[in-house]
Amino acid sequence: MTEEMSQTAAGSAAIRLQKYLAEAGVASRRSCEQLILDGRVQVNGTVVTQLGTKVVPEKDEITLDGKLVLLEEGKQYLLLYKPVGVLSSVSDDRGRKTVIDLLPGVAERVYPVGRLDYDTEGLLLLTNDGALTNLLIHPRHEIKKTYLATIEGTPSAEDLHQLTKGILLSDGMTAPAKVKLAKSRGAHTLLEITIHEGRNRQVRRMCAAIGHPVQALKRVQMGPITLGDLQVGQWRHLTAAEVAALWSSGKRKRG
Ligand code: URA
């Protein structure tokens, strides 16, 4: 049990109001605190502005601006800034650190939506909503993923053109990508690369194929979700609006 939970006499777990709101997907925990301070949240018909207030999800009626806020039973949607040196899996038989080790306060089991390499950092979604996961990782939906790749040397305009139009890898041609040269320092160059495929080590292999291996890789966006100002190793709940945006970003592009 976390320090934010306690047992009521009836045996139900009480949680802090801001945690309830965040878990319902209203907004980040900090923004939920502000909503409470602004007097926009009621518990059983009474405005509550005290941040430590505990509520019992099964018993108390919580409203925001007069609208009922319900916890969707068991559904969790998290955004994690995965550090380098952490596996995007739920366990490891070699005892290496996994992304689940970075979520100690999360009671529900969640699973990474796709994966990032051990040596890649950045945006990773985790959820126990299998339907949304399937939608986000199915190639048919062409969900865009944007990476910042620090590559060796300075690519020529022709190199960048090759990445953009598609390049032959061992598992076939890549789909066209969006490639922007963000910064060039001679010894290394920062590229912003947006792809919608999810092949194994795809960005690394694409850059190696043009003769400019990746030195560091960070994912900054997936569909409508950006890393924002989350710091390495930090996570937050997605808001209800973000979850809805993910569902609509997955609309079929064709077929
Ligand atoms: N492409 C890569 O090469 N690695 C990742 O982790 C993600 C995309």
Pick out the low-confidence regions: 1-11
Helix amount? 10-25%
Number of helices: 6
Percent range for β-strand residues = 25-35%
- How many beta strands in the DSSP annotation? 18
Please identify the structural class as seen in this structure.
alpha+beta
Unique ligands: uracil
Shape: elongated
SSE pattern, N- to C-terminal: EEHHEEEEEEEEHEHEEEEHEEEH
Roughly how many Å is the radius of gyration? Answer: 21 Å
Overall residue-averaged pLDDT value: 90
Largest sheet: 9 strands, mixed
Ends apart, CA distance between termini: 47 Å
Protein model, in words:
Strand 3 and strand 4 form a beta hairpin. This protein has 255 residues and is an alpha+beta fold. Strands 8, 9, 10, 11, 14, 15, 16, 17 and 18 form a 9-stranded mixed beta sheet that branches. A 4-stranded antiparallel beta sheet has the order 4-3-6-7. The longest helix has 10 residues, at 240-249. 20% of the residues lie in helices and 29% in strands. It is built from 6 helices and 18 strands. The model is unreliable at 1-11 (pLDDT under 50). It has helices at 17-23, 29-37, 130-137, 157-165, 202-209, 240-249; strands at residues 6-7, 13-16, 41-43, 46-47, 54-55, 62-64, 67-68, 77-82, 111-112, 120-127, 145-152, 168-169, 172-173, 178-184, 188-195, 214-222, 225-226, 235-237. It binds uracil. Uracil (URA) binds next to helix 5.
